[in-house]
Amino acid sequence: MIHSLVIPVYNELPGIPALFERVRRLADETERRFGAKLEVVLVDDGSRDGSEAALDALPAKDARFKILHLSRNFGHQVAITAGLEWAAGDTVTVMDADLQDPPETVLELIAKWKEGYEVVYAVRRKREGETAFKLATAKLFYRIIQRITHIDIPLDTGDFRLMDRKAVDAFLQLSERHRFVRGLVSWVGFRQTGVTYDRASRVHGETHYPFKKMLKFALDGITSFSMFPLQIATYVGVLSAVVSFFGICWALYVKFFTDRAVQGWTSLIIVVLFLGGAQLLALGVIGEYLGRTYDETRRRPLYFVGRAIGFERKA
Ligand code: UDP
Ligand code: MG
């Protein structure tokens, strides 16, 4: 039995020794407790602060560590994907390099997996050392995405989670470029559950998610799983068509049954109202088709099989 640990690393030089020690202890503990091997895949996401060399020194010290260097900085979500692709374990757990996620939690994730769950995510109970702004926007974001998408992304959960081989293989079939990993993992399904943990603050360095990146991340999340923004035009269009209809009736009433109508006003207001409604409606129609085209171009598989009983072929 092999459990893999995927850790994306981007400019984390000061934190690497501590990371190495903690993860090494975790590997020993995994062996002791579960009699299983821990494979550690460190994905260097194009670091430029010397992390590359520091990482390269690790496999010689401990053969359980493996290093994957990406050719440049592709971003957190792509680095995770690369790690999942290269990991060989029966389970793969993704964890940050900055030790905000305590490595010891992995033992709890594995224990849950042993109970039969295929995805075990770590839910943050507390978050230390984050700004009030980050906490508030994160909270808002997870609630919005819960509202407007059909997938069930667990609240207050990052990418710290364990996936069974089956879920990993399913995830790897998703080929979209704007990846919102935590959404995709929820989307593949399988038996999922959570384990709570307290998130520590960063020991070294700064977050790599400044506001601009967080915003892009949020937009990737929403646009990968929701057509709501495209559908806004449809809703507004229908609403405005209905309002226009009554507006036009009213304009005609004023023209024919009262003497308040100014010369040329009726035709003008009818044209404005009619065109406004028609345009928004047409935009909405385009949005609906665009949304579906978008869905198709992602070429996501239609389904994954969780378990199949009584078949010759294996799920
Ligand atoms: N990371 C990465 N590529 C990037 C940015 C970040 O691989 O372009 C890694 C980083 O080294 C860390 C993890 O992704 O292990 C999470 O990043 P960070 O701690 O900055 O995010 P936060 O915890 O503040 O959300
Ligand atoms: Mg962090």
Characterization of the model:
The chain has 315 residues and is an alpha/beta fold. It folds into 2 domains: 2-225 and 300-309, Spore Coat Polysaccharide Biosynthesis Protein SpsA, Chain A, CATH 3.90.550.10; 228-298. Helix content is 51%, strand content 16%. The protein is built from 11 helices and 7 strands. It has helices spanning 16-34, 51-56, 58-61, 76-86, 105-114, 132-148, 165-172, 181-188, 211-225, 228-257, 265-297, and strands spanning 2-9, 37-44, 65-69, 91-94, 119-127, 157-164, 192-199. A 7-stranded mixed β-sheet has the order 3-2-1-4-6-5-7, with helices on both faces. Helix 1 (16-34) links the parallel strand 1 (2-9) and strand 2 (37-44). The mean pLDDT is 84. Uridine-5'-diphosphate binds at residues 8-10, 12, 45, 73, 75-76, 79, 96-98, 100, 207-209. The site of uridine-5'-diphosphate has 16 residues, from strand 1 and helix 4.
Short description:
With 315 residues, the protein is an alpha/beta fold.
CATH superfamily of the largest domain: Spore Coat Polysaccharide Biosynthesis Protein SpsA, Chain A
CATH fold call of the largest domain? Spore Coat Polysaccharide Biosynthesis Protein SpsA, Chain A
Radius of gyration: 26 Å
Attached small molecules: uridine-5'-diphosphate, magnesium ion
Strand content: 15-25%
**If classified by CATH, what would the architecture of the largest domain be?**
Alpha-Beta Complex
Quaternary structure classification? single chain
Number of individual domains = 2
CATH level 1 class label of the largest domain: Alpha Beta
